């Protein structure tokens, strides 16, 4: 009997600040509505609720400095600068007190969003995947290990497009802390080494068009930069 030979693509890897050292990407989880000012600009309710999680495929990851095709099927592509967590050892039902022991390091991320598709889905109570989990939608900067940067809780979170500043926030504005995010997510799934968690964005998200360059920055970390083909 003939057997269909289907081979999975190679696992994406991310460079770290250590020379010739990389981390493999297992899964990409994202947190929605983690900055109150962004919740307001999206028309949401700022009343505290458990974090909202959604996913992007690992294949959506793009390392910083790349030039990529402009995504299809959208008239409103938007940037979202986000602190990104890299998990080094997994587990289920992790406590907040132990959560930081599971972190390898941190990076700057850009959760690209086809906002028109996301809004259309939300209006129907439908899933967000085609607005969030499309090709090349997770731009990730160089990963800095905890041994180098600690666990950032304060610091500027900014984004610019072609030199025009768009987003200005601070890590201390996060509604859910890194330990709370890890502990909550680990109640839904068993976290694994190489899991990536993008932790939400402050206000100021806006459109990107063909030919533009978007630079996301978090104080103390390397930037996440992407350019879109004209």
Automatic annotation (TrEMBL):
SUPFAM superfamilies: FAH (SSF56529). Its EC number is 3.7.1.20. InterPro entries: Fumarylacetoacetase-like_C (IPR011234), Fumarylacetoacetase_C_sf (IPR036663). Pfam families: FAA_hydrolase. The keyword Nucleus does not apply. Residues 28-226 form the Fumarylacetoacetase-like C-terminal domain. This is Fumarylpyruvate hydrolase. It comes from Octadecabacter temperatus.
């Amino acid at each position: 009997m003939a057997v269909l030979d289907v081979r999975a693509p190679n696992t994406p890897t991310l460079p770290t600040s250590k020379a010739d050292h990389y981390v493999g990407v297992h899964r990409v989880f994202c947190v929605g509505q983690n900055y109150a000012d962004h919740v307001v600009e999206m028309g949401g309710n700022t009343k505290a609720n458990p974090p909202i999680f959604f996913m992007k495929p690992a294949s959506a990851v793009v390392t910083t400095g790349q030039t990529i095709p402009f995504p299809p099927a959208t008239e409103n592509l938007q940037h979202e600068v986000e602190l990104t967590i890299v998990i080094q050892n997994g587990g289920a039902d992790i406590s907040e007190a132990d959560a930081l022991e599971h972190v390898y390091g941190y990076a700057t991320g850009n959760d690209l969003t086809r906002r028109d598709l996301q809004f259309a889905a939300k209006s129907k109570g439908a899933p967000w995947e085609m607005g969030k989990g499309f090709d090349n939608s997770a731009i990730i900067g160089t990963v800095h290990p905890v041994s180098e940067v600690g666990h950032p809780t304060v610091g500027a979170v900014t984004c610019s497009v072609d030199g025009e500043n768009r987003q200005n926030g601070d890590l201390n504005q996060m509604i859910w802390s890194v330990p709370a995010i890890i502990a909550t997510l680990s109640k839904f799934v068993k976290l694994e080494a190489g899991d990536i968690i993008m932790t939400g964005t402050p206000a100021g998200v806006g459109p990107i068009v063909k030919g533009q360059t978007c630079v996301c920055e978090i104080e103390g970390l390397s930037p996440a930069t992407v350019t879109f083909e004209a």
